[in-house]
Amino acid sequence: MIKNHYHIVRNALPHDLCDYLIVQSFLYNNPEKAKVNNPKGFIENPNVRNTEVVFHPCKSDLGKFFKQNAKTVNKEAEWFFNISRIETIQILKYTRGSFYNRHADLTTPSGIGYHQKQRKISCSLQLNSPSEYYGGGFNLFTFEGQELNMSLNKGDLLLFPSFIPHEVTQVTQGIRYSSTAWIEGLSFR
Question: What distance in Å separates the CA atoms of residue 130 and residue 5, rounded to the nearest whole number?
Answer without folding.
Answer: 22
